[in-house]
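Practice problem: GNAT family N-acetyltransferase
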Amino acid sequence: MIPLDHVVVTAELEGLRTLARLDRPKIAVRHEDLPGASCHWMPSSGPGQRDLVRLRPGSRIPLPEILRSLVASRRRARGTGVELRGAESSFVGAADLMARIGARRNLGLPRALMLLDLDDLDAEAAPVPGMAVAVADDEESLRALRRVVSQVFADTSAEQAADIDVEADFYHAPGEMTYVAVRDAEDRIMSTGSILISGGVASIWSVATMPEQRGRGAASAATWAACVEARRRGAHAAALRTDDDLASDGGLYARLGFALVGHEQIWDIDDLDAIGDLLEA
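Answer key — structure tokens:
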């Protein structure tokens, strides 16, 4: 039986691979699959840049071998750092190795992995009545949702968000992703969420609620709507990654029936080129 935390990690990893492989000229990401890892390299280096590397659960490839493959990659820019993510089982016994190469645990990013069985979902039991929920499927609706996400996650002003180029947004892929919007009685967007289905599991991303709308249940409504839509589109489970507060008993996702199935580990490595010799020590 596949461990449930592996299901969550794999669903996100496969979703990101799908997005990275789309032919989108404005998205400057080089995707590369290496033994045991899926990599998203930026085309050039910059101050503090961190490329994203996700370990494939259950690959059975030793971590030192994966790290050597990362160092040897010809697709990544030289002198860059990485954010290395993986299920906790991927890092069993790796503490000494990570200390030797100067890697640092990142405890500030969401690490809790949660899963919801959609086969038993009661689609009629919406947790927050009285809000209008719909799938966004036209250009203006999608643009409006990305403005909300930009304001919430990128901490931009409403004026700055109005000028964002959604075509250059890695997570803006209407052909692959599905977006839901929650609106109030005056047709203002309160909250939004998105899903990408891979292997029967829907990864839920970008649940964002406007600050002035928080505390009214809009995030619950957006998450629930995403789950209902995912089941309608054939998914059997919904997966997400969040912080421990939202994953705890009484937290947003626990209240909706999501179960905590594990945690990711996230490690920051400042310069891949500097660890080559250290791996052989």
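Discussion: The mean pLDDT is 91. Students who identified this feature from the tokens alone can consider the problem solved.
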